[in-house]
Recover the amino acids of this structure.
DNA sequence: GTGGTCTAGACCACA
DNA sequence: GTGGTCTAGACCACG
């Protein structure tokens, strides 16, 4: 799996990293229980400070996406927890996106079509050849 | 229109303000060409510094949601521009949301249902009772 | 002669007005010794405050583009004065424009071609049919 | 590279700063990818507030002259973008300068000569003695 | 150590 | 009266 970091973006590096890994897990590019690269190794690969990678891993751990074992390192969690708080957060994100779409004169059909396309893309259908 | 600011949140005040106003425009709580409150007036109402409000207004202006008229102050723009760059940004936001949903074992049906609900909510259907 | 004012621009209205009138004089749309519209009349036409028009006229008078007669009102001056200070100002403006052009990878030929085109345009060649 | 700020001038400090840096980039006094001084460092050198420098840097970033890297700070951009909008802006600047020149009885030859001189000066030919 | 954010207060330009 | 500009200082996020 390839992770791209843009050091010129306004969003913090650890957040970009966290987002990329979530995308990777959803697309099954990071298999369940597969160990993630070590903090120092990934930091070296990306050319960033290992504290930054550490922070991203901590966030992912707090959100339940990964589990961190002191000996085995980080690995993808079986399933993410705390789905109630998550639904509230998801709803907020989507409401804002929808509001932005409405302001840009996008009707419901087009918005839902975009949502569907993004879901498919996130699932990695295009990358894996569709059906599994 | 009521704007709520959470000073406890980690996200910057100007960003919260920007998001609230976008939601307000989408829900038609802020009519087209309706003047927004003055920078200092809104700041006083919210109990925050006027520079913070100013930054939010500047962002909204850059994004094309509002225009700042020298005579009448800030007002809702007729229509937001630069839809090409917007589509790319929207797609990125939705892809991340979709990935998070997938990690939480949400299937496509449920995700799309949530998207639809959020679109309706953003449009203010729930608030106005649907048809008028 | 048509004057266009953009109340949503960041540059002050009186400056826009001043620039438009200078362009008009150069293009001979405002003939020598022709009286300019009255301060209050022009303000009403443009839908702006007459203090704003007044300020623009004062600037033009200070720069020598027009003369203001208490009885006859404002009119185009025979010739602009203070050419030494002007040359310095012009050089400064052009140097900055040239620097911006260089940063955008524009070579000398293209820059000079653009300068020539702008000079012709300012002289109103295209509008008046070329020769006089 | 030496930056001079005139606190007596009517034009805002951040604009003067922005212009000086553009001139510096064009004259190659600031090499490509060379890091600019830090916001607070430059502010201290110039004896002005760091917010003022920050605003100038933000403008330059928006215009594509510099990029702000999270690790290395601000640096000269490889190449400025959005040349279409730029050409329109450049044409407007030059037209106004040309109009002013015409009002001061400057003929086309003299105007173009001045443009050429300014281009050379901006490129830094005069400073380096022409050929190297 | 660097930039980002927020607050606060003063002055001026603008309409 | 409104926004724009500049200054100043404090705190935190980031790397």
């Amino acid at each position: 799996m390839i992770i791209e970091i843009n050091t010129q973006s306004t969003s913090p590096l650890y957040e970009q990293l966290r987002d990329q890994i979530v995308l990777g897990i959803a697309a099954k590019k990071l298999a369940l229980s597969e160990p993630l690269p070590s903090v120092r190794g990934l930091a070296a690969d990306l050319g960033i400070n290992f504290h930054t990678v550490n922070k991203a891993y901590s966030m992912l751990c707090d959100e339940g996406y990964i589990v961190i074992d002191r000996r085995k390192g980080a690995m993808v969690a079986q399933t993410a927890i705390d789905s109630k708080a998550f639904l509230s957060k998801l709803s907020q994100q989507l409401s804002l996106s929808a509001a932005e779409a409405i302001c840009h004169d996008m009707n419901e059909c087009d918005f839902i079509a975009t949502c569907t396309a993004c879901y498919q893309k996130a699932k990695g259908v295009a990358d894996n050849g569709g059906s599994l």
